[in-house]
Each structure stands twice: as C-alpha cells, then as structure tokens.
Specification:
Radius of gyration: 30 Å
Helix content: 40-55%
Shape: globular
Strand content: 15-25%
Distance between the termini: 101 Å
Largest sheet: 6 strands, antiparallel
Structural class: alpha+beta
Length: 554
Amino acid sequence: MSNNVNRNNRWVPIIIAVSVIAGIIIGTFFANRFAGNRLNIINTSSNKLNDLLHIIDDQYVDTINIANIVEQSMPKILEELDPHSTYIKAKDAQAANEDLKGSFSGIGVQFVIREDTVRVTGIIKGGPSEKVGLLAGDKIVAVDDEPYVGKIVTNEETMRRLKGEKGTEVKISVQRYGHKEPLSFTIVRGDIPLKSIDATYMINKDLGYVKIKNFGETTYAELLIALAELEVEGFKGLIIDLRGNGGGYLSAAIQMINEFLPKDRLIVYTQGRRSRREEFRSDGRGSYQNLPVIVLIDETSASASEIFSGAIQDNDRGIIVGRRSFGKGLVQQPIEFSDGSLIHLTIARYYTPSGRCIQKPYVKGQPKEYEMDLVTRYERGEFFHQDSIHQTGEAYTTSIGRTVYGGGGIMPDYFVAEDTSAITPYYTECAVKGTIAQFCFEYTDNNREQLNAFKNAAELEKHLRKQKVVDQFIRYADKKGIKRRNNMILKSQHLFEQAVYGSIIYNMLEMNDYVQYLNHDDTTLKKAIELFKAKKTKPTLDDQTRNKTPNADA
C-alpha cells in the first residue's frame, strides 16, 4: 500500500505544474480576448522598447550608457505628441519651477558675468546679502575660499554655488571699488522672494496700471496688494499689462479673473480624452466687478494670460488692446520620476467661456516649425497690419453676441501695430552684438557712486541727458568695431535713448521705475489711455468689425 502512495505522490508536482501552466494559458487567452487591442498594443510596444534597450546593452559593439540613451530619447518621444509636452532633467527641475513658486533659497543677488567674473548688479531687499553688507558693483572673486574667476565662471555654475538649502552658509570674497584687498562675507542662505508683478503705479489721477510677469503661486496675493495700493490712490480704471507674460498656473489666473466678474460667470473649462469636463465659474465675491478694465496683450502672451484675456473678452467684461496672442490652449500636468526628473504631459485642452480653444495649429513631431510661428507672423506683416492676420478657426459668440474665433490665440478688440520705423541696420547691429548692454553695464559700474544720488527714473534720465551718454555710447561702439553711421544714428536716436537710458535705470533703480520709463512712449499703452478717456472700456456690438477674421488670402 505504501508503494502505491509513493507512486501517487510522485505525480502530484507534475499535476500542479500542468495546472498552473494551463491556468496561465487560459488567463492569457481571456486577457487578450477581452482587454482590447489598444492595451495589447501598448503592452507590446512597451516590451519592445525595453527589449531594444536590453539588446543594445547586451550586444552593441561599443560600451553604451543606457541611462544617457533614455535621457536623450525622452524629449524626442514627447515631441511626437504635441509642442508643449516636455521632459525636464532632474538637475533642471527645481530651477524650472522657481519663477512660479514665488521664491527660492539663495543669497539674494542679481548678477551678470563680464570678462569671466561675476559682477553683482543688484541686491534683493531684505535678503541675506543685504544684511551682511554686499553691494551692487561688487565683483565676486572667490567662493568658499576657492578662486572663482576665469573660464569656469558660467551662469549655471554660479547659481549652483550661490544657491542652496535654507540655513546653509556660503563664504564669498569680493573686489570692491576703492578697496585694494578683497572683502570676505559669510552669508546664510535664506528664502528669496520672486515677484510676479513687475510694476504698479498710477498713470494719471484716475487710471491705475499693473504689469504681471507670470502667473505663479503668489501672483493672486500680489495682485490684491497692488489693487489695494491703487485704491488708496483713488483709481477709477485699471490697465492690466500681460505683454510678454508666458503664463503659469491655471489656478492663479482663475483666482485673479474672479475679482472682476459677477457671480456665476464661466471663466474657463478644461476637457481631455481621460479628463472629464471641469468648469470654473466666478463666485461673485470679487471686489472689482464694476471697475473699467483694459488688458494689454501681444504675440508673447500665452497660456494663463490667454485664459485671463479670453474670460474678459468672452464675458464682455472689458476690452483687449494690442496684438494677437501666442495661441496655447493645451493643459499640462507635471509628473515626477523617482530620480527627480519630470515630464509636463498634455492631458486636456482649455476652452474660453464662448467654447473656443485658442490653441494654434501644429504638426506632431515638428517642434521647429511650431517655434518659428512668431517669425512667420512677423514676415507676413501680422505685427504691422491687422489685415495680414490669418485666424481661420471656428466662429463663436461672446455674451452679448460679438463674434470671436478659435484656433489661433486671442484677437484684441483694438489692434496696435508694432512701430519699427526707427529701426536701422546700425541700431540692430549694436543691439544684437550686445554692445548696448555692455556699455550700460560698464557706465553704471564706473559711475555708481554718482548715480546713487538719483532716486527716481525722471531725475536719472535728466542727468544722463546732461552727460550726453548716448554720444558716449556711439564713441564706445566705434571703438568696438561698429562703424559710425550718422544718418542711421539720427533716425534711431529715440531708440538709442530708450535702450541706453532704460538699461542704466534698470541697473540702478527698481523694476517699477524701469517699467514706468519704458511706458512713457509706448504706443499700445497710449491707445489704452485714449480708450479709457473716451469711456470705451465696455465692448458693444459696434466693435464687431474689429474682431472680424480677415480673408485668409489677404
């Protein structure tokens, strides 16, 4: 009997093994049968990609760093999706988000690199460097007791050495004007605020102005402070300048537009293949629902700037002045990998209240063509003539029935052409070669003590005119090999004044002063002021012709 038991026991492992294999085969059959072809294709492709990497690693003729191949392949894979799905390496991830986070940890200086030396151009108020006595004009010559001059000095390396975890120390040595020996400072790194509002001031006794650089975590709070300051000044209307604003956080744009809309107005909605429609509406708690609003945009206003502008326009809440915006209507979600790198993956499109998606057309896998779109617009005259604008998307209607168009940015209600009449080859050469920036830095550095006496842009500009600084620049450019062209200099005189005086004002004063100086002769701002004075800040159906899409063959 025992022999029979032993004989039967020998078959048990075989029976179990056969059963497991049969189960796997049956399970695989039904999984493939009912899981759907799409999942099967994805699994097969994923395995194929992994297999390829394994084969290369195992059999390729030369030694290969597989990690490097993956790093190089990630951007190319995402390029096949759309122009805004991107890959960010681990070493760049933190810096990529700093502007929108509203702060970073460092020593609190602004700098440029000239002649292989870090030169401090500004000290952030309240920051660690101001507390220890670092000054604009100081030249950093050593970091942590190691010389830091020469070819090793780059923007990336400088930020790596000066930034760091809050509470950590860095020792720097600087060469200061009037001191023979370097001065040493030990600086404890701290949180450095990054403001997203560049300027807030009263243009005249009734009209306030706010320039917003991006939409970050602190932008809404900054806007409330700015509006409170303008309210103290008694403003009766507001210009919001979004020119050059490439966007940022959707949530910031929604919070901000909520301040200007009555209750239950649609601000924006998003929708994607795997993202259900999500609507964002005003809650009626905004403090400035009846304040006249004018929004300035241009071809570099994108994403959250277009959400803000689109909500104003489609709700007929205010007027848009300037040139057609960039045309980014895709929503990205950041997804982080274990090594700290991340992707920004497009998961949805956003739509303005009228239902339009303002994403401009693109061809998958051709990012260069997409990036050249603004050059194409310029070449066909769109920056100078409204009739040259090609906007061929579907037509939609605003709350009062005005026609607006999707598929290519926000068209302003009032178009303002770019003025290039004073640009000459001589001015272009001076600007492109960096000669203007170099001269202004050197002039500031050599005259800093004298320039410190001037506390606002008007006083400083008056002084620079007396010193005939533009003439000094022309002689400087001549020494740098840019041949003097008297007729071109005369034609571009105003541009040279604006560039030279503006750069020195930027070097010596606050961003607010710099923006005010540039705005003095700004044609788009002048148009906005004119419309406010004429009480044309509320759209009407009479404005319809300004939004009409030009003939595509014009």
